[in-house]
């Protein structure tokens, strides 16, 4: 795993030890950013299931101003910190050890996010519930892009609430779905 493009391009990323976390492959990461960017002129991102932190670090490398990364596993938090340290831009990242639901409550009152990454464990698909909670907490900016990485079984809806499907692509067992918040 590495940072594919941008300011931190080519730097290697550590994976979370063990089998509890499934890292996004470089091929899928590059495809995601080609669909939503590939580069940004600022903004804030949120990853509620950050794992190694690869998606958020890639986003900051490509121009996102600030990334908030959430994971509840201690091993993931240690890996995220190590990967952020490689960027030498630690002030652009905020790491929270918490469940997704508790983090949403904790983030209430902060400015909304422009890009939101969702790559929860495949067995625990809570993307629609998480998005509803984020909207209720006013943490989703108008026009925000939502990146959902799931398996073939997830069957995310074409549209729900104020989220409109922009793109859906299959990469083997991985499905990447991009929504835009129309609120």
From TrEMBL:
Q: Which GO terms describe its molecular function?
A: methyltransferase activity; nucleic acid binding
Q: Give the GO biological process terms.
A: rRNA methylation
- Which superkingdom is the protein from? Bacteria
Residues making up the signal peptide according to the UniProt record: none
Q: Which UniProt keywords apply?
A: Methyltransferase, Transferase
Q: What is this protein called?
A: Rrna (Guanine-n(2)-)-methyltransferase
């Amino acid at each position: 795993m590495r940072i594919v493009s941008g300011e931190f391009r080519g730097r290697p990323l550590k994976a979370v030890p063990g089998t509890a976390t499934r890292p996004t492959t470089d091929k899928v990461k590059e495809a995601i950013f080609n669909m939503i960017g590939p580069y940004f002129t600022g903004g804030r991102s949120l990853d509620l299931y950050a794992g190694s932190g690869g998606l958020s670090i890639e986003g900051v490398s490509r121009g996102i101003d600030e990334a908030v990364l959430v994971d509840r596993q201690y091993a993931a938090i240690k890996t995220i910190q190590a990967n952020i340290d490689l960027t030498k831009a630690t002030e652009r990242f905020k790491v929270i050890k918490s469940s997704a639901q508790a983090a949403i409550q904790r983030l209430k009152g902060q400015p909304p996010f422009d890009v939101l990454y969702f790559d929860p464990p495949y067995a625990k698909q809570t993307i629609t519930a998480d998005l509803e909670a984020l909207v209720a907490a006013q943490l989703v900016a108008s026009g925000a892009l939502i990146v959902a990485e799931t398996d073939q079984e997830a069957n995310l809806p074409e549209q729900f609430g104020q989220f409109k499907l922009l793109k859906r692509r299959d990469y083997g067992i991985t499905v990447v779905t991009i929504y835009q918040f129309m609120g």
